[in-house]
Amino acid sequence: MGYSAKTDAAFEMLHRDILNGSHAPGQPLRIAALSGLYGVSATPLREALSRLEEKQLVVGSANRGWRVAPVSLPELEDLEIARLTVETSLLEDAIAHGDLDWESGIVAAHHRLTQVAPPAGNVDVAARQLWDETHDAFHIALHAAGRSSWLKRFFVRTAEQLRLHHQALLFHPRAINPHGPEKHTPETEALLSRAHSVSAHTELMQVVLDRDAPVAREKLRLHVEITLEVFRSIAGASVKEKKAKREEQVT
């Protein structure tokens, strides 16, 4: 099925703003509001939303219209398992078959990552979108020498879904825990700092360049586990707050 230029434009704008966190997970996507925001009429917007529903970034219902796909811990755990399965396979194949150009590409992608400000606390949408793109490009460079084009396509699709969750972790904690605090706890901030640290990515790069597949696999697993720790920290924040308040009342 072919789409009009207006539908394509609406799709690109909505797709971009969902993945950069401008529209929070679970947020309603009302046609009238979107039309005013993007300057696009209702028909192309509906077609664009249908395409985004096919990509599982938007959910729709007959009575409630469309909204950004929600996030959850089980969904994130499933995505991270899929991501690890695909990326580990590609990474091991790349380590076995990568050449000097592949190594140079990794070093260049890592250098670009060191030049971009991490997204935690960054309210500038363009800046955090740049970090996301640069970060994904670094991981793609790591396994670029992997030979499976299908696995690479699966990785891109999985990374897209993960970005929706990552934006919730960073900028929309209430989408994860409606009863939790609006701002991150010190524990969550520390975990986010670990997840975005240049040193963690440098260590991963070095073991890949050393062609140490077992250690690279473990480093990648630990890298992924931090994201799950952040989600669990946010999801449990309201419980910790209530406990702290009870303890204050007792003392």
Automatic annotation (TrEMBL):
Gene3D superfamilies: GntR ligand-binding domain-like (1.20.120.530), Winged helix-like DNA-binding domain superfamily/Winged helix DNA-binding domain (1.10.10.10). It holds the Pfam family GntR. Keywords: DNA-binding, Transcription, Transcription regulation. SUPFAM superfamilies: GntR ligand-binding domain-like, Winged helix' DNA-binding domain. It comes from Georhizobium profundi. GO terms for molecular function: DNA binding; DNA-binding transcription factor activity. The keyword rRNA-binding does not apply. Residues 4-71 form the HTH gntR-type domain. Signal peptide: none annotated. This is GntR family transcriptional regulator. PROSITE patterns: HTH_GNTR.
